[in-house]
Amino acid sequence: MRIANYQIPLWPTLFAIPAFIVLLSLGSWQVQRLQWKNALTETITAQTALPPVPLPADISDPAVWKYRPVTVEGQFHHDKELHLFGHNKYSAPGYLIITPLERADGSFVFVSRGWVPPEKRPADTRPEGQISGTVQISGLARLPWSQQLFVADNEPEANIWFFGDIDAMAATHNIANYAPVYVEADATGNPGGFPVGGQSRITFRNDHLSYALTWYSLAVILALVYAAFVVSGNRKND
């Protein structure tokens, strides 16, 4: 094939054009991810800056409450606590202790009280932290989340959870009237030191710009190499 007095090699062209399109597509996808991550960060920053308010009993739109500082008051049902596998802010593996809190109106809120190491997972290893009576908890409202790729199935029968299926958690203990969000407790200390609250993560890695530049750079390099190959090949044929 000849274009503008240049002989265009078939097989290198069939490789270069799809590869160039793929590299541009990957770069554009990373730009879209960058825009999404920036918007998410702005939303979280705006939400967490709001003053704390009591979590209402009636929540028609849970998304409005995502990352909103809230307070809840009631009594913990420690016999119904749930163990969600997770890491603390220092990346140490362990469990987040999620305990149903019953409010005065009989409704429940699932409270992520904080992190414990594996040896502190059994409730009887931290009796001081099993607070009785009416308590007020401050923290961030968070949405439940579904199972992601490569995440293990929840094991309700073993009380080991890998993702925040709040409906399944409620069903495990026959809780019917509960908030569609859960509350991550702040860093206020618990008696005995466990669970360790304040585990909310409100910052995220944002490397999408560097990834986008990498893919676009590879596309430019490919185009230059291909052009040099074509020019070199035609010079040899002259």
What does this structure look like?
The protein is of the alpha+beta class. It has helices at residues 10-48, 166-172, 208-237, and strands at 2-3, 6-7, 53-54, 69-76, 82-87, 93-102, 108-116, 134-142, 178-185. It folds into 2 domains: 2-43 and 206-237; 68-193. It has 3 helices and 9 strands. The strands form 2 sheets. A 5-stranded mixed barrel has the order 4-6-7-9-8. The protein has a two-stranded antiparallel ribbon with strand order 1-2. The longest helix is centred in the first third of the chain and has 39 residues, at 10-48. The mean pLDDT is 91.
Mean pLDDT equals 91
Strand tally is 9
**What gyration radius follows from the Cα positions, in whole Å?**
27 Å
Shape: elongated
Low-pLDDT segments:
none
- As a percent range, the share of helical residues equals 25-40%
Number of helices: 3
The fraction of residues assigned to DSSP E strands is 15-25%
Largest beta sheet: what is the strand line-up?
Answer: 4-6-7-9-8
Biggest sheet: strands, sense, closure? 5 strands, mixed, barrel
What's the structural domain tally? 2
Structural class: alpha+beta
Calculate the terminal CA-CA distance, rounded to whole Å: 16 Å
SSE string, helices as H and strands as E:
EEHEEEEEEHEH
